[in-house]
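User: I'm writing a short methods note and want a consistent example. For ribose-phosphate diphosphokinase, I'll paste the sequence; you return only the structure tokens, no commentary, since I'll be parsing the reply automatically.
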Amino acid sequence: MSQVVTDAKLFACTQSMSLAQDIAKHYGIPLGNVITSTYSDGEFQPSFEESVRGARVFIIGSTNPSSDHLMEMLLMLDAAKRASARHITAVMPYFGWARQDRKDKPRVPIAAKLIAKMLETAGATRIITMDLHADQIQGFFEKPVDHLFASTVFLPYLRNLALDNLTIASPDMGGSKRAYAYSKALESDVVICYKQRAKANLISHMELIGDVSGKNVVLVDDMVDTAGTLTKAADVMIEKGAKSVRAICTHPVLSGNAYERINNSKLEELIVTDSIPLTEKSDKIKVVSCAHLFADVMKAVHENKSISSKFLM
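Assistant:
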């Protein structure tokens, strides 16, 4: 009689290979073997080069654009399902397309809901992700979602800075809940930036709600894309008398001329996780790894242990 495989198996999508290797190291097992074949027209096919029958499979991959990253995750989920894996968990440090979480004007898609359905159809029986753009995206899934907070890795870093007159800031009204949670943990004040956009990624006006004079300000956001909001907020706060301005952003999307903006900005530093690999180096960008957070949660999930402590801000 063949023996049922009960050990967990970890596999990586190509875009998250470095993070996946760190997760596997903290978990204590090697990454599984996957070979990806690519056709001349760009079509690709991932293949598990080991049995996953009866196993709990974790597939690690962020789905930041390009869309090939999402497609690779979907294909690997489908391959695991068709290879008779017992449980298939999509580990998505960055859940891409999450900004499209509602209809904010007529005749547009709700992409985050579509992605959720695609992941489940492909074979995901569980999702592990971190700092969703909107908490309610969890409700788009019919499968369990473990929504982790990057504050688990950011708060120790902030405490080690030992900044006096610390003030937490949100770069927009939508991030106020996150800012208040950080301020509660750090026992600090809070200020909010009110911004108006001319269009996506273009700010037409920004005002500051609160006093930053003489304060060391830390901006908190779930992601940094073009860095227009962060650098504009830093300028406004320095003009209002802030002593220093830092930013912590979970997901370093950093598109367009984001690196140039950050390097030329009044930000002391930008602290990010390795949910998305950096494409350039910058003296102002500090990476704090989230590998141990995901490894701990994945191991607890596999062993059917509580992970509630990882949700605490």
